[in-house]
Design goal:
By secondary structure, the protein is α+β, with helices and mostly antiparallel strands. It has seven helices and ten strands.
């Protein structure tokens, strides 16, 4: 069976067009899943030194759903050793203002971000919002960590959490609405803050990822990933286990981190997904009011 959706469009000159979208009958996806990709960047240890620099865990998850199973899979003793967690949300639009959302009164949660942001000409404001324990869905991803007593924050250009399923796609989710310079600046903000914290260089005026150095953010690298992501469908339930997007992210982590793994978790029953993801659009000129 083929489903058809009809519509009409009138042009400024009076011509009327008939739009027909034909697509196969959608079928319910039985067990939709999401993929979590994680890698570990172990801290180095000098010869004869019993201390070790902190380990960084990089986790790519789909919305707040993906963070939960990854967190729960961690040993409690390992969770207790987490210094802090930074989650990223909507940092690609142009602008000089970001928000650092936290669920508990700030302690070390700003992770040196404020001082680095000033150097980059960014204004980062701290916003504290308590978690609504009765609501199973969290507003920000860092709240999943806070529920398990892990110090966490979300860095975002949004001053308030979007409504449920708001800004999750559509015509504005495209390359031209992402500012490449803002992405690069946000990358440096997070990387510089982490590096200074790990190496104890906070407040010492040292620019680890200095512009023009071998460690500076590579605009070509950022541009290539933006191009790839903006032209690749990435709705999690429709991605196969060996989808090119998942494999590309996994390979990227393997090039820079260790112990890279991919976890596939079944989504809970909050959503129903159907497999009809494409259709063919036919446009017919059916009438004209101007002779």
């Amino acid at each position: 069976m083929v489903y058809k959706l009809y519509g009409h469009l009138r042009s400024p000159r009076g011509s009327i067009y008939k739009l027909v979208v034909a697509a196969p009958e959608p079928k319910k996806i039985a067990s939709p899943s999401i993929a979590n990709i994680q890698g570990w960047l172990p801290g180095m240890r000098a010869d004869g030194d019993s201390s070790q620099l902190p380990t960084i865990a990089a986790v790519a998850s789909y919305d707040t759903f993906g963070a939960t199973p990854w967190l729960r899979s961690l040993d409690q003793r390992l969770r207790e050793t987490i210094d802090y967690t930074i989650c990223l949300n909507s940092i690609g639009s142009s602008g000089d203002e970001l928000w650092l959302h936290v669920s508990k009164p700030p302690n070390n949660q700003q992770c040196g971000i404020s001082s680095v942001s000033e150097e980059l000409g960014l204004k980062v404001q701290l916003k504290h919002k308590k978690i609504n324990i009765s609501n199973p869905r969290v507003a920000w991803e860092h709240e999943q960590f806070s529920r398990l007593r892990v110090t966490a924050a979300t860095l975002s250009e949004l001053s308030a959490a979007p409504d449920f399923l708001e800004s999750t796609g559509g015509p504005f989710d495209s390359r031209e609405f992402v500012d490449e310079a803002s992405i690069s600046r946000s990358v440096k903000l997070v990387a510089e803050s982490l590096a200074r914290h790990i190496y104890g260089q906070e407040g010492k005026g040292i620019d680890i990822f200095a512009e023009g150095s071998s460690l500076s953010v590579n605009p070509s690298y950022v541009r290539s990933w933006l191009q790839f992501l903006s032209t690749t469908p990435r709705v999690a339930p429709f991605l196969s286990k060996n989808d090119p997007l998942i494999m590309a992210l996994k390979k990227e982590l393997e090039d820079h981190t260790a112990e890279v793994s991919v976890q596939h978790e079944v989504l809970d029953g909050a959503f129903t997904f159907y497999d009809a993801t494409s259709g063919r659009l036919h446009i017919y000129q059916v009438a004209s009011l101007i002779n």
